[in-house]
Amino acid sequence: MTRVRDERGFTLISVLLAVMILIIGLVALARTQTLLTAAESGVSNRSVALSVATAYLEQLRGADPSTLVSEAPVAVDADGQPSAAGAYQRSTVVTLDQTNLVRLRVVVAYPHGPTPVELVALLYMRTP
Question: Per CATH, the architecture of 45-124 is what?
Fold first, then answer.
């Protein structure tokens, strides 16, 4: 009984080729997973920085506009509290745009962030 050549099964070369294609696919999948994890970390840090900036801007908006001054960068933690080991850098710039108009700019830099989060608000100062 003779067998037809097509009925023999897989050759060693075809098995090696299939394994190589599988390995390439798995390596590509692992690389994609690494990039997604890094992107998620960046988004998470930016979200915390935005939260810190928003909370501090609201705190400043509640203060008397005539008492506001610019602040140098200060290290803060994820809750916005000053901390020497804080991963975030918060600074404030206060400028007088017009006689009774104050511009508040809160900038929060976050770890591995390409650009810091920046929020701006305008406050009206009543003249006595």
Answer: 2-Layer Sandwich (3.30)
